[in-house]
Fold this protein.
Amino acid sequence: MKRISTMSGIIALVGMIAGCADMTQTQQRTITGAAGGAAAGGIIGAISGNAGMGAAIGAGLGGTGGFLLGRHNEAVNAAYEQGRASGSQGR
């Protein structure tokens, strides 16, 4: 039974990774943040007595953080490209 559970987890992980291939960086960071936040929140919640609530709060906070980080990185890249384009026109 443990072997089936392990194989199911591996198959799910491969499916999630393959599903992220055509996503933007912001979408990937949002999902990664939500998954990491859910895991951390679940662990902290299990210690304090309510793993489900901890996972839900962690997923929300992690997803929000991942989204904001992704948007920030997109803005930085856009500013870089704009500056690069302006610099090449000035020559």
Observations:
- The first helix runs from residue 2 to 19.
- The helical segments are 2-19, 25-48, 51-89.
- Residues 24-89 form one domain.
